[in-house]
Every structure is written in structure tokens, then in C-alpha cells.
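Data availability excerpt. The first of two example chains:
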Amino acid sequence: MDRGKMKRLEKAGWTVGSVAQFLNLTEVEEELVGMKVALADKLRKIRMRGQLTQAELAKRMGSSQSRVAKMEAGHPSLSLDLLVHGLLVAGATRRDIASVIGKASLPKA
């Protein structure tokens, strides 16, 4: 968020902070959430790049389309290893996954 917008919001009485502050996350929790969000986004991009539907990816994984949709949405009930499994099935490389994890972070205020 740009500084001008932050100042206007603060002047209007709003509290401006980060996602982690709003959710009261520890540093470790913040890192894990950031990784999950980044991996979920990468899964959708790689699936689409491979011209796979959610149903096709689900079939390859031995799962359901609704679970793939939850994976791409970063649903809190899904594990990081399930996201990694989906990425590998969709055609991601270890390098792709490492790159995503290395850049993952939550948006800052």
C-alpha cells in the first residue's frame, strides 16, 4: 500500500498494519502461511500452463476436483505436502518449488 493511502486511512481513524499483525501470527506462522499462499498460486499457474483442468489434475493425483480447488485457494485445512504433491503431479520441478518457497512472504502494510 502506498504511503499516501496509509496516511489517509490513519487520519480517518483506521489502524494500518500487516496481515500477520491483523491475524496475530508468530513469525513461524507467518512464514508457513506465506509459503502455502505462494505454493497454491504456483499450482494454479502450472496447472493452467499444462492446460490441465482441476478435474484432470485431481484424477492424476487420485483426488477430487473440489480438493484441487481448495489447494489452489490455499485452504487452511490442506497441508504443504499435499500442495507439493499437486505441484509435482502438475509438472513442477524441484527448482520451481524451491524458487516459490524462497520468495514466499505475506503482503506487508
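And the second chain:
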Amino acid sequence: MINDIDLLNIMSPSAQIVYQVLRTREKLTTQQIVSQTRYSIRTIRYALRHLMNAHLIVQIPDIRDARRCYYTINA
């Protein structure tokens, strides 16, 4: 069975960086991740999609603004 670390090691470098950034914060929006990593929005969305598909992170809707969501490490 593959654990989270092994799964992360076979992912793209951008997904690994996004995961590391999310480990340092409670929750971040896509724009905050872009600011932290300086990757393009397209690269961040790609990384987030792969991390969510691997169940390493979760998406949390913003209660105050339905257009925005947060991402955090899956506990």
C-alpha cells in the first residue's frame, strides 16, 4: 500500500511545492498559493487537482463568498 509520502514523491514538482506550502498554513486560497509559490494560476490548478484526486488535500468552500474556496491538508 502506498503511503502519503510515497504518493507525493511520484507527483510533479509543482504539486510537491503546493503541498509543502499548504503544510505551513491552516488554509489558503488559490490566489494565496500563487503568491506564495509564484507559479502560474494554471500550474497551481493542475497541482491542486492532482493533490485532491490523491486525497492529500481537501477543498473547503468559503461561507462568505461562494466564488472562493480554501485548500488544506487532508487530516
